[in-house]
Each structure stands twice: as structure tokens, then as C-alpha cells.
Fold this sequence. Notes:
Pfam families: DUF2256. It comes from Belliella kenyensis. This is DUF2256 domain-containing protein. It is a single chain. The chain is an alpha+beta fold. It is built from one helix and two strands; from the N terminus they run E-E-H. 11% of the residues lie in helices and 13% in strands. Strand 1 and strand 2 form a beta hairpin.
Amino acid sequence: MKKQFLPKKVCPVCNRPFSWRKKWEKNWESVIYCSKKCKANKHEQKN
């Protein structure tokens, strides 16, 4: 699959889009944050 056709989500912490990765293949539905840094800073979500 070409990169441009991969599923995308928006990180609730940094508001940046991120694309599907092979390591998330089995749990893509449960992936919320784009990185470990954002996951650690989830209490700093911008509304």
C-alpha cells in the first residue's frame, strides 16, 4: 500500500496527523497518541 493511502488519525495532544504503522497493525483501533512523548503528556491536552 502506498503511503498516501494509509489510514490517518489526529493526535489529541499535539493536534498533528499521524499515519498507520506496521507495528500498530493489530491494534490500530486503540492507538490514540502519535508518540510516547504525547502519551506521557496526555494531561496537557489542548482544547
